[in-house]
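TASK: fixed-backbone design
INPUT:
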């Protein structure tokens, strides 16, 4: 266990034992979807900037400035902001497995805790990489609705790109089936 185990100690129930804790990788991370998203966002943002500059230069009505500015801001978020948000999200996210629950703690600008009983989850899936890192996704879409971090798990809670993911997955299955 890592030194983040102290973070979880305040949120354990009576007779609950922390079996594992970890966190997603920190820093800039590119995903498979970025093969499409980066060129798309550059085209989007480039066109939005071109539109807005032309609206200003030719003295177009205020409506065109507002629309152009809105799409420029959206383009800048898609080009740069989404990476910054993702870096912050992963930097302040911590995962834990107890003998009863999976816990996700998010500590940016306050404290957000999501936990669920492992025995109540019908489906647990894993996506493994060759280096041993992997993402564990809990539940199917009908079991767990809306979750704040839904880019990887499609609305389901997940442990993203954790080390030794297969060992953690097997531990979870063992607790679930006990």
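OUTPUT:
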């Amino acid at each position: 266990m890592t030194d983040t185990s102290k973070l979880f100690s305040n949120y354990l129930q009576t007779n609950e034992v922390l079996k594992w804790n970890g966190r997603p990788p920190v820093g800039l991370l590119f995903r498979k979807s970025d093969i499409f998203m980066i060129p798309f966002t550059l085209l989007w943002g480039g066109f939005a900037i071109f539109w807005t500059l032309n609206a200003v230069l030719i003295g177009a009505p205020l409506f065109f400035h507002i629309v152009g500015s809105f799409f420029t801001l959206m383009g800048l978020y898609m080009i740069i902001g989404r990476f910054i948000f993702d870096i912050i999200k992963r930097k302040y996210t911590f995962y834990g497995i107890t003998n009863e629950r999976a816990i996700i703690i998010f500590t940016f600008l306050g404290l957000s805790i999501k936990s669920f009983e492992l025995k109540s989850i019908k489906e647990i899936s894993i996506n493994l990489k060759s280096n041993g890192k992997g993402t564990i996704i809990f539940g199917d879409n009908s079991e767990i609705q809306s979750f704040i971090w839904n880019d990887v798990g499609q609305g389901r809670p997940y442990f993203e790109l954790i080390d030794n993911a297969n060992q953690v997955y097997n531990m979870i299955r063992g607790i679930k089936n006990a």
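COMMENT: The longest strand covers residues 93-98.
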